[in-house]
User: What shape does this take?
Amino acid sequence: MATYRVVVRRGPKVDKHAADTLEAALELLERHARAAQTGPRRAGVDLRVRRFEPVQQVAARAELYGGRVRAGVDVRGDGSAEAWTGRLRRRVVEPQAGEDAYAALRRVLEAQSTSVEP
Assistant: This one.
């Protein structure tokens, strides 16, 4: 049985994938999220009281979970990507110099998997 699951949501479509290692799961997540980034851009949405710009909309979400890992990447309506960790409270992973969202997520998850708890 696979240790990690990757779930990709794009509108009403949900794709589920499995991986045996964290590295393989991260590769799956990145491949599917990058494919979503190349898709069509979204327009702003006007409601009576508020306007949602494309950067405020999540066009696709790629989630990775398994063991103690809960993380993912949100692809925004403008094509940008934002990594996050957490289950109930999502915390944005800020990229460091020269990193994209995928490299930042990989850095944080690999650091978590090598940390030793007392």
Observations:
- The chain has a mean pLDDT of 86.
